[in-house]
Amino acid sequence: MREWSVPQGEASLVIGASGSGKSTLIGIVAGLVSPTAGRVGVAGEEITAMGALARDAFRAANIGLVPQTLHLIGVVSVRDNLRIAQRLAGRVVDDHAIDAVLGSLGIEALAGNKARDLSVGEAQRVAIARAVVNRPRLVLADEPTSALDDANCDKALALLLGQASACAATLVIATHDRRIRSHFTRTLEL
Question: SS3 for 67?
Answer without folding.
Answer: coil
